């Protein structure tokens, strides 16, 4: 086994990551700019320069389309996620938890940080605790690097928080609190997000993984604020794709300000199933087991254990900073012809079309542990989006 130059993993030098990202964005930004500015005037004189016309599909928002309501608790830490090694008895314990509302986005980046910690040991067989998106991404990455991996977990998908995510590229969503993270964490996040974004691109276009680029629109009557250089995520904005100001005539949305980005979207059940399948095909074993205290972890046969228990880490390892940020999604029946996501900033409501559902949400409630669906929140989201469709969407 060669831990330093894995055969199947891409070389993750910053230059490589940067070149790929700049290349991708130049294309997306240019095509978005070309149509309104150049193509329309040219079309007057040269008929073959026909204006690009888009057919706008109206979202079907209705109470009788509700198929289920899910509640998830984002594992939030004010100072950001934890990836760190520490001794546990005779073992090495590597933590990988606390990803807030960014766990899907960052999973490959933090898995890579784990792999770097693991290189400092002589282990060839490791235990991963947890089979949410972080447990699965960590387990798969380590398999690609040649390790033998056993997953120990209380629950498997779909009964994990990761299956209750929306889920799109959002590397700083409810990740940490202003004034509570260090400049070092901000730098680490930048590296982690770039690595993760690069890994995600390798899944795009392979149907069985369900990873896609989609247009995401945000509408509001107030101007969108800009990030200051000190703000978390200010130096990874390019990974969101270029933010395009959409002219009123170029969309059906009746808002004073409309932004469009070309963003990564993850088909949650599709990707989770593919990851479980890949883990098994590569020889991985899953053991159903609940851990209550560090001694239970110490009793495992593997000499290196990676903790990917998300919010479950609070109970087992007594992290006082870890807390839930509750989010609720109302799943409407899928609408296959709808291809864009939308969020109304001031109202804090959004919809995201997936293969399994048109998910509608927008709630972030700190320190609420209840997993019971809240009807008031269903009403807030459905009423807000119905208002958008009825009053802010030109048919
Ligand atoms: C409404 C909502 C929308 C979201 N949208 C996005 C988004 O758009 N983009 C994005 O990047 N992220 C999003 N997130 C955040 C993302 O879902 C989380 O960051 C991510 O799911 C955390 O994954 P995890 O693997 O660390 O934890 P989990 O998914 O919670 O997995 C933890 C695993 O550990 C196991 N476990 C826990 N405790 C124990 C124990 N004591 N013993 C044994 N096993 C245990 C569990 O069974 C599970 O298998 C969203 C979250 C919510 C709730």
Topology:
Elements: H1 14-45, E1 66-76, E2 82-88, E3 91-97, H2 103-118, E4 125-129, H3 133-144, E5 148-153, H4 183-201, E6 211-220, E7 244-245, E8 257-266, H5 268-281, E9 285-288, H6 294-298, E10 304-307, H7 313-317, E11 323-332, E12 340-344, E13 349-353, E14 358-361, E15 365-366, H8 375-391
Parallel strand pairs: 3-10, 4-5, 4-10, 5-9, 6-12
Antiparallel strand pairs: 1-11, 2-3, 6-8, 7-8, 11-14, 11-15, 12-13, 13-14
Helix pairs in contact: 1-4, 2-3, 2-4, 3-5
Bound molecules: flavin-adenine dinucleotide (FAD).
The site of flavin-adenine dinucleotide has 41 residues, from strand 1, helix 2, helix 3 and strand 11.
Describe this structure in words.
The protein is an alpha/beta fold and 395 residues long. The protein has one domain: 2-Layer Sandwich (D-Amino Acid Oxidase, Chain A, domain 2). It has 8 helices and 15 strands. The strands form 2 sheets. Strands 1, 6, 7, 8, 11, 12, 13, 14 and 15 form a 9-stranded mixed beta sheet that branches. Strands 2-3-10-4-5-9 form a 6-stranded mixed beta sheet. Strand 2 (82-88) and strand 3 form a beta hairpin. Bound molecules: flavin-adenine dinucleotide. Residues 72, 74-75, 97, 99-105, 129-135, 153-155, 160-162, 164-168, 170, 290-291, 308-312, 316, 327, 329, 361 line the site of flavin-adenine dinucleotide.
């Amino acid at each position: 086994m060669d831990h330093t130059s894995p055969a199947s993993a891409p070389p993750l030098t910053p230059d490589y990551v940067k070149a790929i990202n700049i290349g991708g964005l130049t294309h997306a930004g240019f095509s978005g700019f070309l149509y309104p500015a150049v193509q329309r005037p040219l079309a007057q004189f040269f008929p073959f320069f026909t204006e690009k016309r888009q057919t706008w599909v109206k979202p079907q928002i209705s109470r009788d389309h509700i198929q289920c309501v899910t509640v998830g608790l984002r594992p939030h830490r004010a100072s950001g996620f934890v990836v760190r090694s520490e001794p546990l008895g005779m073992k090495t314990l590597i933590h990988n938890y606390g990803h807030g509302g960014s766990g899907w986005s960052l999973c490959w980046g933090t898995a890579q940080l784990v792999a770097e910690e693991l290189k400092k040991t002589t282990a060839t067989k490791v235990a991963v605790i947890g089979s949410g998106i972080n447990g699965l991404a960590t387990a798969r990455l380590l398999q690609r690097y040649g390790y033998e991996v056993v997953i120990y977990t209380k629950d498997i998908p779909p009964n994990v928080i990761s299956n209750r995510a929306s889920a799109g590229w959002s590397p700083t969503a409810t990740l940490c609190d202003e004034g509570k993270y260090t400049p070092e964490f901000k730098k680490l996040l930048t590296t982690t997000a770039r690595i993760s974004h690069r890994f995600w691109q390798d899944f795009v276009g392979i149907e069985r993984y369900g990873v896609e680029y989609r247009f995401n629109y945000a509408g509001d009557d107030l101007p969108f604020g800009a990030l200051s250089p000190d703000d978390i995520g200010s130096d990874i904005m390019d990974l969101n794709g270029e933010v395009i100001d959409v002219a009123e005539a170029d969309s059906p949305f009746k808002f004073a300000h409309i932004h469009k980005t070309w963003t990564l979207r993850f088909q949650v059940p599709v990707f989770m199933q593919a990851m479980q399948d890949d883990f098994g095909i590569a020889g991985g074993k899953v053991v159903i087991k609940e851990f209550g205290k560090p001694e239970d972890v110490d009793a495992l046969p593997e000499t290196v254990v990676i903790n990917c228990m998300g919010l479950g880490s609070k109970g087992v390892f007594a992290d006082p900073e870890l807390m839930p940020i509750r989010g609720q999604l109302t799943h409407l029946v899928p609408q296959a012809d709808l291809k864009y996501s939308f969020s109304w900033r001031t109202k804090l409501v959004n919809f995201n079309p997936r293969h399994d559902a048109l998910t509608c949400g927008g709630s972030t409630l700190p320190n609420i542990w209840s997993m019971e669906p809240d009807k008031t929140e269903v009403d807030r989201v459905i009423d807000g989006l119905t208002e958008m469709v009825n009053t802010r969407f030109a048919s």
